[in-house]
Amino acid sequence: MPAISANKKPLNNEAVISLRDLTAGYNRHAAVHHLNGEVRRGALMAIVGPNGSGKSTLIKSIVGVLKPMSGTCHVARDVTMAYLPQQSELDRSFPARVKDLVQLGLWQRRGLLSRYRNEDRQRITEALCAVGLEEFGDRPIDTLSGGQLQRALFARVLVQDADLILLDEPFNAVDEKTIRDLVALLRRWQAEGRTVVVVVHDLDLVRASFPEALVLARRPIAWGPTAQVVTAENMTRARQFQEAWNDDAHWCEPAPALQEA
Ligand SMILES: Nc1ncnc2c1ncn2[C@@H]1O[C@H](COP(=O)(O)OP(=O)(O)OP(=O)(O)O)[C@@H](O)[C@H]1O
């Protein structure tokens, strides 16, 4: 694959994301609560948990689109961020070509209205090559398959050249070959010293490709080396916590079924 940027090797093991008793949610109802922990520079980490367990909410809190209800979510100074939301949150009907979509990754550097330079066009071409879409630059995005769109979105992340990359369920409805190619990109980003946090449902994929994981069920069930935390026991506990959660409860009260656990 062509090199797009200089290495961003970690200088040390500093925390890129720090969570201190973070509670976040919507309309005064907590969706995740009492999260404490740190993501170190250069981590390749998966967030796993049942549907509705707060994974997207946590990612949105880190990105800053959702303000904490209490506690703090701190991203280290000078860390640039790239965020890929779930595909369901994207409007594919927007009349854009694949290279326009990828170009959007450059706007923080160039501004929306400035002219793009030759080096930018080169960067976009390299990114499309890196995700196997070199022939797709002029295709309208609404003609892409789900897997091709995901590749194009990874190309947009590539050109962003960010220190911290947050991806929400990038492997949903994507075939095995595409998953393999995109996981190779995640590994490349980590090898370049970037910090990568990904919401993933496929636990076999997490065990095979992510050294670190957070098991979430509205609260942290376990967080650490994947082999130690993505266990059948922890996934059962996560499911039980999730099923016992009362959406209307005050956020500091544990769900009744769990108070004696
Ligand atoms: N915009 C919103 N307004 C109100 N409630 C929301 C909103 N987004 C999410 N929620 C609620 O917050 C809780 C956590 O949702 P979240 O999307 O964070 O879970 P998730 O673990 O990412 O789920 P999934 O695996 O299904 O994508 C759910 O009860 C959900 O209904």
Automatic annotation (TrEMBL):
CDD domains: ABC_Metallic_Cations (cd03235)
Keyword entries, A-Z: ATP-binding, Ion transport, Nucleotide-binding, Transport, Zinc, Zinc transport
Superkingdom, taxonomy of origin: Bacteria
Keyword Kinase in annotation: no
MF terms (GO), sorted A to Z: ATP binding
Keyword presence, Lipid metabolism: no
Span of domain ABC transporter: 17-243
Family of the protein in this entry: Belongs to the ABC transporter superfamily.
PANTHER family: IRON TRANSPORT SYSTEM ATP-BINDING PROTEIN HI_0361-RELATED, METAL TRANSPORT SYSTEM ATP-BINDING PROTEIN TM_0124-RELATED
The protein, known as: Zinc ABC transporter ATP-binding protein AztA
GN (gene name): aztA
